[in-house]
Structures are given as C-alpha cells and as structure tokens.
Design brief:
Layout (H helix, E strand, L loop, with lengths): L1 H29 L1 H8 L3 H29 L1 H19 L5 H29 L2 H33 L2 H21 L14 H20 L3 H23 L8 H5 L1 H15 L4 H12 L4 H8 L1 H16 L5 H19 L8 H28 L6 H31 L9 H27 L19
Length: about 475
C-alpha cells in the first residue's frame, strides 16, 4: 500500500509539471494583443513570443533526455522546474519585448527538461501493466493545460494584465519543486556508463534554429541561405547518429521499423499543420471579431475540451482496432476542420467557428492517442525511452514549423506592419493561405498514417529492431 501511495504521489507531482508547460504556451497566445499594445510590437515580433518558446524546447529536448539518463532523471527534473519557475517570474518584470523573448527561451529550456524527464520518471516508477493508466493521466493534464490556458489567460489578462499569467506560473512551479523534493525518492539513471554526444547535440540545435529562423526570413535571400544550411545540418546530424557510439537520438529505428517511422512522420505532419491554429485564431477573434481576451479564450477552449474528452476512449479503442485506421480517420477530420477555417472572414458567424473547432477537436483526439499507441507499441521495451522522446521531438518540430509558416505568411502579406483596421484584410488573406497549406499537409498525412502497416505486438515487436549501437 505504501508503494501504491508513493506512485500516486509521484504521478500527482508529475501531473502538475505537465500542466504548466502547455498552459504557458496557450495562455500567452491569448495575451498577444495586450503585449502588442504595451510594447508597440508588430505581428512578426508577436509570433516570436510563441516561436522562441517552442524553438528553445525543441533544441534542448533530445540532449536533455540523454543527460537525464546519464546523470539522473530526478536531478535533471528538479533543475528543469527551477529554470522554468525563475524564467516565469522574471518574465513578469521584463521592460521590453526583446527581454520577454529571451525569458521565453529560458522557459523553453526548463520546459524541455521537465517534458522529457516527466514521462521517463513515470515509466521508471510504474510497472508495465500500470504504465498506460499513468501516462494517460499525464496526457490528460497536458490537454487540461492547453484547454485552461486561453480561458484563465484571458481572465487574468483582462482583469490583472498579461504579466499576471507569469506571476501565476511561478507559485505553481514552486509547488511542483517542493512536491518533487518531498515525494520523489531515489534516482533513475540507466545510462551512467554512456556519454553525451555533444557534437550531435550541437549539430541538431544548429539545424533546428537555422531552418526555423530561415522560414521567418523568407522570401529574402538570407532566409533561403539559412534554410539550406539547416537542411545540410540535418543531413549531417543523421549521418553522425548512424556512426557515433552513443547517439543522442537513435535514427536506426526510423531506418528499420516502418510502423515507427511512418507513425512519427504522421505526427510531425499533424503538429506541423495544426500548432499555428490557436495563434491565428486568437488574433482573428480579438482583432477581426473584436472579442475581449476572456471571450476569445472561451471560444478557443472548445477544441481542447473535445480532445480531452475523446482522447482516452480513442486510445482505448486503438488497443482493439488497428491504430492506423483510427488515426487516419482523425487526420481526415482534422483536414476537414482546417478546410472550414480557410473561409473565415469578418462576418463569419460564431457557430461556424465553433463547429470548425469541434471538428478539429474530434480529429486531434482520434489521431493523437492511437498514433502514440502505435509508436510505443511498434518497439520492444528497451526502446520505450527513445520512442517517448521521438513523440515529443516530432510534436515540437511540427509546432515550430507551424508557427514559422504562419509567421512567414504574415510577413509576406503584412511586412512589419502591426495588426490594425488598415491591415485586417491583409491578415485575413495571410490566414487563408496558411490554413490552405495546413489542409494540404493533413491530406498528405493521411497517406503516412494509413500506410504505416499493421501494429505488431508481443514477440513480433522484437523482430526487425535495430541492434543496439
């Protein structure tokens, strides 16, 4: 019984941490118009408030997971919580938008450490027969963070100002830290004999930064140059991971396992086509529709609520029906929701917007849990950590691409002009093109989702696994 209580206490602690990182992302998005007024920022600078957080998280995620395996997951989890909490607190006092973007980078660093160690700690504490339940609770807290961010963020921004969002995150981070110190006993470090692939980590970081930054500079020649450098860096990273003794990311799983590879590609496409939705709709609802932050937040909460309600059922269903069938249906539903958003204009009724969000929520739920189930079920037990890391990596790379694409379209249509009545039509045009591209991406994602093949379990999962590097 003591052990049972201990595991639940660990889950409670990890769940609070898993709530914080997505909450900060979605809550900050709803405060963007207030940030623009306070800092006189243009649309491109506003997009970097979200992009810097996602980019920093993506850059540090993989090396953070490897460092945790080497030096201890609990130890690094505590460091991540401390960094995230301090960055949140300091964000409330920034004098300029440049300082805020810098603090968001540190928030992303802390968030990446928390994100990659949280799942690893739960996997270490819970036995295989209970692990799905624990991870399900953890995923639900992520959805609750996404769902409550627009509403709570809107209320805080409307009544206490945007800085209150960061004030609120600091005490939650402190509570998480205290619970960690009190409840998490022992340490987990399963790769003490290994070394961090510093060269590979740096190549990966350079590639992600160059590609993301290059997208924001397009169509300028410098943007094309950064993109080419990023692509070359990505190729060099893959090559290095195939030859190094202790890779920071085991790319052999992509080479030898079709279900794993196609499921990850489908996840990358899905997040790449959807992460920019909240950013664009937040601006649309508050500027074009004239809604106050709290009202816009209540509208945007529809999609994650649908997702949170249906995801457990979809995940459970994928244990009985081939995950590729359910997730492909989810990708198709997401495509339909994105298609509906292409036709937004200044007079679009609220019922139409809510309908699109419901369709998107259904799509996300049907795709997310079954696709993750396929990824985790396609590898043997010794690769669970790598598989879990790949899920987070695909999510963050997709989110970065999505935000970069949205930023690119805004830049092409509006330049550095602020969102104002004179530029509303230009903003709508950029949104139409962005949602059109997102729709086409999701349609392409249906192929990878459906063509991954059947999910093999038991002894079949052991076959075709890459040899340990």
């Amino acid at each position: 019984m003591e052990n049972h209580i201990s595991k639940n206490q660990v889950l409670f602690t990890i769940a609070i941490a898993s709530f914080l990182t997505p909450f900060m992302l979605s809550a900050t998005n709803i405060a963007l118009p207030s940030l623009q007024r306070d800092f006189a920022a243009n649309a491109v600078m506003l997009s970097w408030i979200a992009t810097s957080y996602l980019l920093s998280t993506a850059v540090f995620l993989m090396p953070a997971g490897k460092i945790a395996d080497i030096y201890g997951r609990k130890k690094l989890f505590i460091i991540g919580v401390v960094i995230f909490t301090l960055a949140s607190l300091l964000s409330a006092f920034v004098p300029t938008i440049d300082w805020l973007i810098l603090m968001r980078v540190f928030q992303g660093l802390g968030g990446s450490i928390v994100m990659t160690t949280a799942v690893a700690i739960l996997t270490s504490v819970y036995p295989p027969q209970e692990r799905g339940k624990a991870l399900g609770v953890n995923v639900s807290m992520v959805y609750i963070g996404l769902a409550s961010g627009p509403t709570l963020g809107g209320l805080l921004t409307a009544h206490l100002g945007w800085r209150s969002i960061f004030y609120m995150s600091a005490p939650l981070g402190l509570i998480t830290l205290l619970l960690t110190l009190y409840y998490l006993k022992g340490e987990w470090a399963d790769a003490r004999e290994e070394k961090l692939d510093i060269k590979g980590s740096l190549i990966y970081a350079f590639s992600v930064i160059a590609i993301t930054y290059g997208l924001t500079l397009l169509p300028a020649a410098s943007g094309i140059l950064y993109l080419l450098l990023g692509i070359l860096g990505a190729a060099a990273f893959v090559r290095s991971q195939l030859t190094v003794k202790y890779p920071v990311f085991n790319v052999r799983l992509f080479k030898n396992n079709r279900v794993f590879a196609f499921s990850n590609i489908a996840a990358l496409i899905n997040y790449g086509a959807t992460a920019g939705i909240t950013f664009l709709l937040s601006l649309y609802l508050q500027y074009i529709k004239g809604m106050p932050p709290q009202t816009a937040g209540l509208v945007l909460i529809v999609q994650p609520i649908i997702q949170a309600i249906l995801s457990p059922a979809a995940g459970n269903l994928s244990d009985k029906i081939e995950p590729r069938l359910i997730s492909s249906l989810g990708m198709a539903s997401t495509s339909l929701g994105l298609f509906l958003l292409i036709f937004l204009h200044s007079e679009t009724p609220l019922t139409y917007i809510i309908t699109a969000l419901i369709v998107l929520g259904i799509g996300f739920a049907l795709f997310g849990s079954p696709n993750t189930n396929a990824i985790m079920g396609s590898v043997s037990r010794q690769y669970y950590g790598i598989a879990s890391g790949s899920v987070s990596t695909m999510r963050l790379l997709g989110q970065n691409f999505s935000m970069a694409l949205a930023t690119l379209m805004i830049t092409l249509y509006m330049g550095k002009a602020p969102i104002a009545p004179a530029t509303y039509e230009l903003f709508l045009n950029s949104s139409h093109i962005t949602f059109s591209i997102f729709t086409l991406l999701c349609l392409a994602g249906i192929y990878f989702s459906y063509s991954r093949g059947k999910l093999h379990t038991g002894s079949e999962a052991e076959e075709g696994q890459p040899s340990k590097p």
